Amino acid sequence: LLKKDIKIEKIYYCAHSPEDNCNCRKPAIGMIEQAIMEYPNINLDNSYMIGDKNSDINLAINAKIGNSIFIGKDINLNASLSFKNIKDTYEHFKIKNMIKNEFISHQETLNRTLDKLMPNIKDASDLVIETLKRGNKILLCGNGGSAGDAQHISAELTGRYKSNRRALASIALTTDTSAITAIANDFGYEFIFSRQVEALANTGDLLIGISTSGNSQNIILALKKAKELGCTTIGLSGKNGGEMQKSCDTNIIIPSNNTARIQEMHILIGHIICQGVDDNILR
Fold first, then answer.
1. CA-CA distance, 206 to 130, in Å (whole number)?
2. 8, 78, 87, 148: which one has the fewest Cβ atoms less than 10 Å from its Cβ?
3. What is the sign, positive or negative, of the torsion defined by CA atoms of 226, 231, 232, 236?
4. What is the 3-state secondary structure (H, E, C) of 48-82?
5. Alpha carbons 155 and 151: distance in angstroms, whole number
6. How far is residue 259's CA from residue 238's CA, in Å, rounded to a whole number?
7. What is the pTM of this model?
């Protein structure tokens, strides 16, 4: 317990024999009542009773303790949870704590993003809307999970997000495997997006480059090529924004060093931009 930074405040025990008919021997609630008197901040609804005997679980019921865990070969149907051994119990709560910590980490990143990046997200949304309104197209690129985000966002534009508005011109540069492999083989992997930008982009189009680090070379070269061709450029990045910062009209830098959290914010921002499009391009 000490290794897990768990502090034992006090140990209570019953010093009586069963014949004494005391109020502290389980399943009587005397020891719980004593603990509540000494520690009035105890919240029984959020507390756990852990035991390996039926009397332990009955004590939890009698004392109205919110949660009870039975550890033993048999299942105690009155317990909140039953496990065969301590190892199984530990694994259950280890997974549960992991899930909770992931949600907390996501929420913390979400709060920082909302606090710091609303103006940047609005700027990006405005740029996308202006590009589509004048009849230009959106190009997107990314690697790995960011490639999936590029395709996802593009599909929301060519298909629909929420509203049944007209189809909008958008191309994910991550989907043509023949072009990607040919360019990688003949020129190098760092050129797989910039060559496609050179072939497909027109002045006034907009390129969204997605890189959690901001340092993916093929994204940087694509952004540079887009600028050469007179395109607007938006970055979705994280950490410190990386080298792609220099080639973006606006770079939305997620305030996190955690790749998973950065990616989660990227797709949320992609959806927010799509909502802006839906709200402003109705037909």
1. 10
2. 8
3. negative
4. EEEECCHHHHHHHHHCCCCEEEEECCCCCCCCCEE
5. 6
6. 8
7. 0.81
Token representation of residue 89:
């119990």
What is the biggest distance separating any 2 CA atoms in the chain, rounded to whole angstroms?
93
pLDDT at 57 over 80: yes
Spatial neighbors of 150 by CB under 8 A, at least 6 apart, are 140, 141, 142, 172, 173, 174, 208, 210
CB 122 within 8 A of CB 116: no
Q: Residue 5's pLDDT is what?
A: 74
Compute the distance between CA of residue 81 and CA of residue 100 in angstroms, rounded to an integer: 18
> Tens digits of per-residue pLDDT, 191-235?
999 999 999 999 999 999 999 999 999 999 999 999 999 999 999
Model confidence over 78-105: pLDDT tens digits? 999 999 998 999 898 899 899 999 999 9
Instruction: Kindly report the number of other CB atoms within 10 A of residue 247's CB atom.
Output: 21
Instruction: Name the β-bridge partners of 250.
Output: 234
Please name the amino acid found at residue 280: N
How far is 283 from 276, CA to CA, in rounded Å? 14
Alpha carbon distance 197, 180 (integer Å): 12
CA 271 to chain CA centroid, nearest Å: 14
Q: Does residue 146 register a pLDDT over 70?
A: yes
pLDDT at 19 over 90: no
Q: Which phi and psi (to 5°) does residue 233 adopt?
A: -130, 135
- Report whether 171 contacts 141 (CB < 8 A): no
Percent above pLDDT 90 for the chain: 87
- Write the CA distances from 89 to 66, 75, 80, 120, 232, integer angstroms: 17, 13, 12, 46, 55
